[in-house]
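Hello forum,

I keep getting stuck at the same step: I have a sequence, I want structure tokens, and every attempt I make locally crashes halfway through. Rather than fight my setup again tonight, could one of you with a working pipeline run this one for me? It's a single chain of 100 residues.
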Amino acid sequence: MASVRPDGLVLKRHDQTVVRTSIRELRLVHMRARGRIIGTVAGLAGGLAIATAVAATHLFSGGNGVNAAIVVAAVGLPVAGYFLGQVSDRQETLIQILPD
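Reply #2:
Ran it on my machine without issues. Output:
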């Protein structure tokens, strides 16, 4: 939304005005960064702890399965933490406009 006028709302991307009487609700979305930071750090700490534990217990046994588990733990958990944090970062406010 670019601006609010007495006759309606001016949209930023389309350079057009939406007539005030046709608006039923406004959905405002605000994104924070706190959840993504916390999720990524928690995933990184957990992933490194699991990867270290797997590496310590299977240090000399080798095998592709062990290496894959280490990579999944070290990379996958921080990525999952980021996306879980992204869900918690989204704040949505709904404004319903009642008819006159």
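DSSP finds two helices and five strands in the chain. If your local run keeps crashing, start a new thread with the error log.
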